[in-house]
Every structure is written in structure tokens, then in C-alpha cells.
Automatic annotation (TrEMBL):
Coiled-coil region: none
Designated name of the protein: Putative dehydrogenase
Gene3D superfamilies found in the cross-reference section: Dihydrodipicolinate Reductase, domain 2 (3.30.360.10), NAD(P)-binding Rossmann-like Domain (3.40.50.720)
GO molecular function: nucleotide binding
Record-linked PROSITE patterns: TAT
Gfo/Idh/MocA-like oxidoreductase bacterial type C-terminal domain mapped to chain residues: 216-274
PANTHER family linked to this entry: BCDNA.GH03377 (PTHR43818), OXIDOREDUCTASE-RELATED (PTHR43818:SF3)
Domain of life: Bacteria
Organism, scientific name: Dysgonomonas hofstadii
Residue intervals of the Gfo/Idh/MocA-like oxidoreductase N-terminal domain: 45-164
Length: 475
């Protein structure tokens, strides 16, 4: 078992570590017994944690399936402008600011939770929910640190009757089923390189990269529980540059463009090419590097070893408005998936090169987008030549939200459980460490330790949690 003690001891840091013990847990609700007791037509009693912006979108999608009964709403800013719509939509749902109080007061009425909160807060919420036997749907990138993802995978294994799903929606759409079918049919094989690109503007673009300290404190908005918003992260004074989605900009709270969009671009590549963890991560180019928020542009190389009969391969990640990769001959137009979810009510603007990937194999080149976008073979002449050899691709029996709720009822298995997405979340964490330190990383994939930099190795675990949050780091 990987523990924080192991990580920090290997890094040469002095620490008392964390004791294995965990939150007081109860037996998880078995999905099959759920059906027998409650009947196949009964809805899942769902508590929703994070009810503004993306959290609101998740709640609407879960409710749209007809399989969810929203029994509780929880948000540290409950009653603010961005949370009022959901409060009004579900007036009978009980309201809370603190997820711990919610579980304490009505845990017996809750069967599953959705978690649509900032990246840094996913971990404690999910750990408590799993320990209490509640099924969990959590937004990507699952966890902020390598160690948190490790513990979440261990908890999911400890509570096998708890259903988990990470919110990379394309994993239940055409992209997932096509990639799986093409891989199994031998169309996708001998992949040596994947180029992933996300070149749209980010919130921190335009900020001053000569920053030498964190933003000055501002008055906490009336009615906001800032202390709970911070959760296990060391205390920061409130500033609006952390709130309303801006948390994604900062190493202390978010995962940048890589954690945000990598989950929608690289999910099928990672799963079906059996990539696991890289052995080397190189920050090839960082423009606007600083110690606090993400670079204006990043090119990061992830190197993966040979896996079975699959050759060693690299992933090249490009983000930044002008940091675009070279395109192969015959690439054609870059299409934007019209089903990309809205963020804060706005659609993503199409650009010359939209988020996506290029997959280079020994014999073929594939072009793909993000989320549910399917692959195409390029150039067009090669696609026509291959048309008769392509296997039939099955249609998805359920979207990502219905898949989760049906899994809660024992009817399906989730397609992006913690055991599948966790290693990819750890890949992103390694990329973020390389961005933050602006140095190459060498990883022992078996020991799960960085071997060439003690400080980077300590960042796998990150700083110890604040007082009264240690319990979530115990299993």
C-alpha cells in the first residue's frame, strides 16, 4: 500500500506520516440488494455537492435521466447568485453549506452523491462518501495530487460495493466505443506517438507572470463558508482570483489546462493502449513560468514503456494560444464537438485548431477531437481505402450520467470508475509537477516515486492537510 509516509520517507523529508485507520465507515449499499429491496423503477436518492456553474450542469444532466431523486443540495456559497437557480429548481431538497454536516444529519437518506466542486476539494468529499457507503460521481480530474488519486483508488477497492464514476462524459459516447472496437479489431495498433492539443484561451492568460506572492486578502463574500471551501489545503486569505472557476489557475487548487482538458482528449488513448504511468516526463517548453499559477503555454512530453506487444510511445501535450503542434499532411479541417458541455452558461468558441489529438501508428494516422468526438483516418485517400475493413461500432446503451445511476441500481457497470481513471489522474499530476518545477522527472513506475528529484517526489504527496482534515487521508 502506498502511504504518505512512504512518499515522504523516500523523498528524504521528515514527517510523522499518517496512520491507517480511516473515517468511521459503514457497509456500502450493495447494488444488487438495492434492486431487490427498492424495486427496479425506484430512483436513486442523490445528494449534490457543488451546485453552481459546472456543478449545476451535472445536476441537470443527472436529473434529466429520470433516474435521480435530488434529496440534498450542498454548497459553501449557498444562496449566492450562481447557486440560486438549482435551489429554486429543487425546493424540496434539504440545503447545507458543509458536506460533513449533510452526511451527519441525513446520511441515511442519501444513496449517492455528485461532486462538482473545485479540484482540490474532490478528495475529502469522495473519501467520506465512500467510507459511508455512498456511490460517487465526481468531476474530472478526480484528484489534485498523485497521492490523493492513489488513496481514492485504494478506498474504491476497499469498498467494492460503492459505485464510482469520474465525469469525463466522452467515455460513454461514440469516442469510447469506436476506439475500443478499432483497437480490438487491430485497426489501432503499433502506436508510437500521440499529439494532444488544447489551444483555447485560459483564465490566467494575461495575468502578470512576474508574480512574487499570492494575492492580497479581500473581504469574504457575505454568506460564504471560506474555511470549508479551502478544505484540506493550507489556509489562504480569500481573493476573487480563487473563486468562480479561477481556482483552476493556481497550483494550490487546480490542475490547469492539462487536468481540465486532458481527461476529455486522452481518456481512451490511456485506457485502451494500457498506458498506466510514464517513466519520464519532460517540460519541453514553458512560456510564462512562475511559482504560483500555470504557464501561458506548455509543451510536455510523457514517455511510456513497451506494454506487452505494444511498442514504447510518447504523448506530446500542447497548450497555449499560439503553441500549436505541426499537423500531418492531409489533416483537413479541425472540428469542434458540438456536445462539449457549457461552462458558466457559455459555449466554447470554435478556433482554427480545436481541442483534440493526432495518433501516429506504424501504418496509419488518426485524427480525433475531444469528449465524444470519433476518430477519422487521414489522409482522406487512406480513409477510403480502409473503409471496408472497419468494424461495426456498437451504440452506447446509456450516457455517462445514466450509466452511473444504472450502476447504482445494479443494471450496468460504470465506464470510468476510479480504478480506470485514477492512473490517468496521476499522469496529469506528474505533468503538473513538471510544469511547476520546470524540470524533467524520472519515475519508478512500480515504486511510484520520482527518482531524480527529492522535492518533486515530495510533491507527489503534497503538503500535509490542515488540522481536522487529516482523517480523510486514512483508509
Amino acid at each position: 500500500m502506498i502511504t504518505r509516509r512512504n512518499f515522504l520517507r523516500r523523498a528524504g523529508a521528515a514527517t510523522a506520516g499518517l496512520v491507517v485507520g480511516g473515517i468511521g465507515s459503514v457497509n456500502a449499499l450493495n447494488a444488487e440488494s438495492y434492486q431487490r429491496v427498492n424495486g427496479a423503477n425506484r430512483k436513486v436518492n442523490l445528494a449534490c455537492i457543488g451546485v453552481g456553474y459546472r456543478g449545476a450542469d451535472i445536476i441537470k444532466e443527472l436529473e434529466k435521466t429520470g433516474l435521480a431523486n435530488i434529496v440534498a443540495l450542498c454548497d459553501v456559497d449557498m444562496g449566492a447568485k450562481h447557486t440560486r437557480e438549482i435551489m429554486g429548481k429543487f425546493p424540496k431538497a434539504k440545503q447545507f453549506k458543509d458536506f460533513r454536516q449533510m452526511f451527519d444529519k441525513m446520511g441515511n437518506e442519501i444513496e449517492a452523491v455528485s461532486v462538482g466542486t473545485p479540484d482540490h476539494s474532490h478528495f475529502p468529499i469522495c473519501m467520506m462518501a465512500m467510507a459511508l457507503g455512498k456511490h460517487v460521481y465526481v468531476e474530472k480530474p478526480m484528484a489534485r495530487t498523485f497521492y490523493e488519486a492513489e488513496l481514492m483508488m485504494q478506498a474504491a477497492a476497499k469498498y467494492p460495493n460503492v459505485v464510482t464514476q469520474v465525469g469525463n462524459q466522452g467515455h460513454s459516447e461514440a469516442n469510447y466505443f469506436q476506439f475500443k472496437a478499432w483497437k480490438e479489431a487491430g485497426i489501432i495498433k503499433d502506436v508510437t506517438e500521440v499529439v494532444a492539443h488544447m489551444n483555447s484561451p485560459r483564465r490566467w492568460h494575461g495575468w502578470d507572470t512576474n508574480i512574487y506572492k499570492l494575492p492580497e486578502g479581500q473581504p469574504i463574500p457575505q454568506g460564504m463558508d471560506w474555511d470549508t471551501w479551502l478544505m484540506s489545503v493550507p489556509y489562504h486569505d480569500y481573493n476573487d482570483k480563487y473563486h468562480h472557476g479561477n481556482w483552476r489557475c493556481w497550483y494550490d487548487f487546480g490542475m490547469g489546462a492539462l487536468g481540465d482538458w486532458g481527461a476529455h482528449i486522452l481518456d481512451t488513448v490511456h485506457e485502451f493502449l494500457d498506458l498506466g504511468l510514464p517513466y519520464e516526463v519532460n517540460p519541453v517548453m514553458l512560456e510564462g513560468h512562475n511559482d504560483y499559477f500555470f504557464p501561458m503555454s506548455s509543451t510536455i512530453q510523457f514517455r511510456f514503456p513497451r506494454r506487452g506487444d505494444m511498442p514504447a510511445m510518447d504523448i506530446m501535450w500542447y497548450d497555449g494560444i499560439n503553441n500549436q503542434p505541426s499537423l500531418p499532411k492531409g489533416y483537413g479541417a479541425s472540428e469542434l464537438d458540438p456536445n462539449i458541455p457549457t461552462v458558466a452558461g457559455g459555449k466554447m468558441e470554435a478556433r482554427k485548431l480545436n481541442p483534440g489529438k493526432i495518433i501516429y501508428s506504424k501504418d496509419l494516422i488518426f485524427k480525433g477531437g475531444s469528449h465524444g468526438s470519433t476518430l477519422s483516418i487521414i489522409p482522406e485517400e487512406k480513409a477510403k481505402e480502409m473503409a471496408s475493413k472497419l468494424p461495426q461500432v456498437p451504440k452506447s446503451p446509456s450516457n455517462h450520467f445514466a450509466n452511473f445511476l444504472k450502476a447504482c441500481m445494479g443494471e450496468e457497470k460504470t465506464r470510468s470508475p476510479f480504478g480506470v481513471f485514477g492512473p490517468l489522474s496521476q499522469v496529469f499530476s506528474l505533468g503538473v509537477i513538471a510544469q511547476r518545477m520546470n524540470t524533467p522527472l524520472l519515475l519508478d513506475r512500480n515504486a511510484k516515486e520520482i527518482t531524480n528529484n527529492h522535492f518533486a517526489n515530495a510533491l507527489l504527496a503534497g503538503l500535509p492537510p490542515r488540522r481536522n482534515w487529516e482523517q480523510y487521508y486514512k483508509i
